[in-house]
Write a structure and sequence with these properties.
There is one protein chain. This protein is of the alpha+beta class. The protein has two domains: about 5-155, no CATH class; about 160-210, no CATH class. It is about 45% helix and about 15% strand. Strands 1, 2, 3, 4, 5 and 6 form a six-stranded antiparallel sheet that branches. β4 (about 130-135) and β5 (about 145-150) form a beta hairpin. The longest helix has 17 residues, at about 180-195.
């Protein structure tokens, strides 16, 4: 079983009724950090995928999927070590070739083998950084290393690229963590989606870093 199949199996298990209360609490916490959204929003599905990425990695819920198969659960350690980054595509995905991503926050370069079809299309069209999580492991350990981009990546719009650069510069100066910076950018992306006739330069502005307690 590959990483994306294992991820899907774990998410399916977590979505069942027995864990509904834990998942609901995690969703509330995710929205408190990244912005509120509901079923009536056009971006509900995209944000829900981002939530599941968060829940199964840094959120720690994947370990609760005790009903998932042994093959799927073999990927649990990889999920806990997932690299969340603000990525740009340096090599576009082609059939049977790895996609090369560079994280603007850490400088790490990752060669990604497994990407869902819809995400692959988004990577081909990406003209700005995106928030994503990458997992890597052999499962079991004797199998070749596989690297996958989880399906909840959030792609920032093209006209946000320059404002994002300014936000990153200030975030580094103020000592924001990677998670704080990425969560702030997700709130900005949601603001741009939610407010009509708002330009990216307004939605993605340094002043909004005050939301997380920095002057």
């Amino acid at each position: 079983m590959g990483p994306l199949e294992a991820y899907s199996a774990i998410v399916t298990e977590l979505g069942g009724a027995p864990l509904a209360e834990r998942v609901a609490a995690a969703r509330v916490a995710f929205q408190a950090r990244t912005g509120a959204f509901g079923p009536e929003d056009a971006w509900f599905e995209a944000r829900s995928r981002a939530f599941w990425d968060d829940a199964t990695t840094t959120g720690g819920l994947a370990g609760l999927a005790t009903g998932a198969s042994e093959e799927a659960r073999a990927w649990l350690p990889a999920l806990t070590r997932a690299h969340r980054g603000l990525f740009v595509v340096t090599t576009r995905p082609r059939e049977d070739d790895a996609t090369v991503l560079e994280c603007l926050l850490t400088g790490v370069e990752l060669f990604v083998d497994d990407v869902e079809a819809g995400t692959r299309d988004a990577l081909l069209a990406a003209s700005a950084p995106f928030d994503g999580r990458v997992v890597a492991a052999g499962a079991p350990a004797s199998t070749p290393l596989r690297v996958a981009l989880l399906p909840g990546a959030v792609f920032h719009p093209e006209d946000a690229a320059a404002p994002i650069g300014k936000v990153l510069e200030v975030a580094r100066t103020k000592g924001l963590s990677r998670e704080q910076t990425l969560d702030a950018l997700l709130r900005m992306e949601l603001s741009l989606r939610s407010l009509s006739r708002v330009k990216a330069s307004y939605a993605y502005r340094v002043a909004l870093l005050q939301d997380i307690g920095f002057p």
